[in-house]
């Protein structure tokens, strides 16, 4: 695997998104996974997560979805993101996050799916999508926006997935054909219980194959090892759920549940 943080370029209708690409070292085609970053963006920890998925038998694309404001990383991040640093970081990221409208998400998602479909490193066909923090909402929007191109979608410690807004991600549930898994943190002000219930109800009404689980005692960001919210037990549970979903989605492709080939 390359150590570069941004070693791919994805042309979009709005410019070129820098991205990280990870794939098994033999160069052969593998099932495609589109991984959406959390708000802190592409950085060594997220690269390590993509590399782990690649080692399990996938070609993984991690786009910098905030590319309109510049290449990753947008900010100089501390080695470990603690509670005290978060308000300042989110204040600085706020304009970039607010600029990522649902229409922009759809354009970017289509470009990433096109890029993966054209890559000789992928097997072609529908992809799996996973996302973290606000990236879980992007994953949900991608599944709803491109139902014929997304076979599986997962989201972990997602934020604001089912608000009362007219453009809330959960309102796309009726378009989803993918299998869906969500792992929620129960210590998460950005996704309170009423939103979890609203999301479940929307998925159930739409007849989506889905499973949602609330990870008791876990905080928002529990998969992110470079933050104080990291929870090793919850992170291990997330990997079991994600790799299990990929194994069901790509049967016969040898997705390794231990995350290594």
UniProtKB/TrEMBL annotation:
Gene3D superfamilies linked to this entry: alpha/beta hydrolase
Any single Pfam family the record assigns to this protein: DLH
SUPFAM superfamilies: alpha/beta-Hydrolases (SSF53474)
GO molecular function: hydrolase activity
Positions of the Dienelactone hydrolase domain: 18-248
Protein name (database record): Carboxymethylenebutenolidase
